[in-house]
Design goal:
33% helix, disordered N terminus, nine-stranded mixed beta sheet
Amino acid sequence: MAQADYSMDFDADPAVFTEAVEEFAARRVITREEADTLEAYARRRAWWISGVAQMDVANDAFESILTALTDGVKFDDWKKTAGKAIEAEWGRTDSPRLLLIFRNATSQAYNAGRWDQMHHPAVAPLRPYVAYDVVWDSRTSKICRPLKDVVLPADDPFVLTHFPQLHHGCRTGLRSLRESVARRLGITTKLPDVDVTDGFGYPPNLTTPPLPSERANPPDPDLQLMAAVKGGKYLRESDPVVIPDKAVGPVSHTIHTPFGETKARLTDTGEFKRFTGDPDPISHWGHAMFVRDDAILDDQMGVYGHNKFLIKSGVKIANPDDLRGILDKLTDEVGLPRGITDNDDEHDPAELFDIFIKRLNPKDIINSAEGWDSHGIVNWFTEEFYPKTGIQAIETIDGAVVFDPDAIMAVE
């Protein structure tokens, strides 16, 4: 089956990540000389490009990255437009440096958006721990390597001074965890020695420095910025930024598909689990059913086998009720899947569509999910739905159904 490439390395995600857009939009464009007068926590409210003196070029670059965050512009496309103007100001081509500018801006915005989600009042009490997600390959930095497998309370002082990014080009991130997952992974007791690059490591709650208790009168970063720009000479000259409305819910966001908009979110590792007697997690039906981690103990799952699997972090997952609109349009184009009922011809299309939606969201993923036991339905999702939407799994009341094997990881 041909599958679209939905990688999320350093290209802006096509989902409108509202919190990330807001964080970047709130920054003020200044010069490098002005940035050098600011303390690190105040720099997080500013944006500049070293070697660019023309503020119209810096302003245009800022707006172009904001567009990338909002609309999902890839780095190669951004480089062809905004990158040319920046390189003209530098007087030379420098693709690696352009990549660094783009990656720093988008990664910092995404991490800030996730921080905002983690500290949402509806999320923080349920997921009070964080784990460092370190991209582990030949390019992993010496700064980030010690953070692999570090799990801490979200409000730990270490987190407040080691917030990604930790250096230029940093690919490390944070993900929130339930307490049960954090304890199973192992809460870190011996903190690693991490030498964060100057100007990095600060979370986006910038109204005060990260450790205000150490200062008698915590300075205001906005006041620092106002002093630095000397009466507004270098304030952004472009039109005011229009920030999208807040997405519904702390973790779901609007994504765009060829069949319209829908809500989806990205999974965290450890949210869902599956046990099988077969080393292949995909069932003979062509899907893999997972139960929420906190819905049942691992010991109770042993009857299904001792091979344990998790859904990976960053998998796009959506609820059938949220998908109803685009499923309606997709079925108009390619038809309903086969095998919704024992005899589909007994139902008119509208009735059959309602039955289809109900089958996708069983109340009990372990005992009443036979609605998914249809090769016709599963093949339809793997061959029609996933390649055209990028959504890899369907979230049910107490679990998830995955039809993309690449979204699954084995637990040793």
